Amino acid sequence: DIVMTQSPDSLAVSLGERATINCKSSQSVLSSSNNKNYLAWYQQKPGQPPKVLIYWASTRDSGVPDRFSGSGSGTDFTLTISSLQAEDVAVYYCQQYYSTPVTFGGGTKVEIK
Amino acid sequence: EVQLVQSGAELKKPGSTVKISCKVSGYTFTDYYIHWVQQAPGKGLEWMGLFDPGDGETIYAENFQGRVTLTADASIDTAYMDLTSLRSDDTAMYFCARGKRMGPTLNYFDFWGQGTLVTVSS
Question: Are A51 and B112 an interchain contact pair (Cβ–Cβ within 8 Å)?
Fold first, then answer.
């Protein structure tokens, strides 16, 4: 199984400041056949299902604000919120869909400082 | 509009079985896998398995193998998750989610159901 390790577990950021979440996979999720990283980021607010923000490591889903960006390749990935807004308070998860079992990181809770 | 609508909350006794439904609309049922994800209270996301409505194939996570069965009724665009031998640590929110079929590979989960809370208590 591919283990996904997120850091930090939680972070508090001032409004308008940058938030950075890291995700490391225990093996590469980069496909040699299509050069795509099978890595997604989800946002989950209390009482709601997760919502995809980023897929293929760096493609923003439709309607997702451009303050959210994803980067990285192979085993190391980052989700960046360039200017934190109040509505971004949530738990963020990375996910690999390179192989079954699909696995998620443990989550990072983002709060306002 | 794509929707995945799950059945309502369940209260179950230890040792019993729960069946959760996930009715989809707004897309062709057979074009997407249906995945099931468990989230215990205050915890993270754990993938349970997938069902392929195109050919009925199932893949189960090892942690749930033997206790979970994924099925579907394509005539009513509905997927089901049965979880047997329930115990207290099965108390959780259960989500269905869809991921586009792309040949032999998987895809990210682009739409999710609202979740079904299962409480296991004597």
Answer: yes
CA B14 to mean position of chain CA atoms: 20
CA distance B53 to B58: 9
Q: How do residues A61-91 score in pLDDT, each as one tens digit?
A: 999 999 999 999 999 999 999 999 999 999 9
Q: Residue A58: phi, psi to the nearest 5?
A: -145, 5
Q: How many Å apart are CA A72 and CA A37, to the nearest integer? A: 9
Interface of A with B in 44-103 (CB under 8 A): 49-52, 55-56, 61, 93, 95, 97-103
What's the pLDDT tens digit per position in B25-80?
Answer: 999 999 999 999 999 999 999 999 999 999 999 999 999 999 999 999 999 999 99
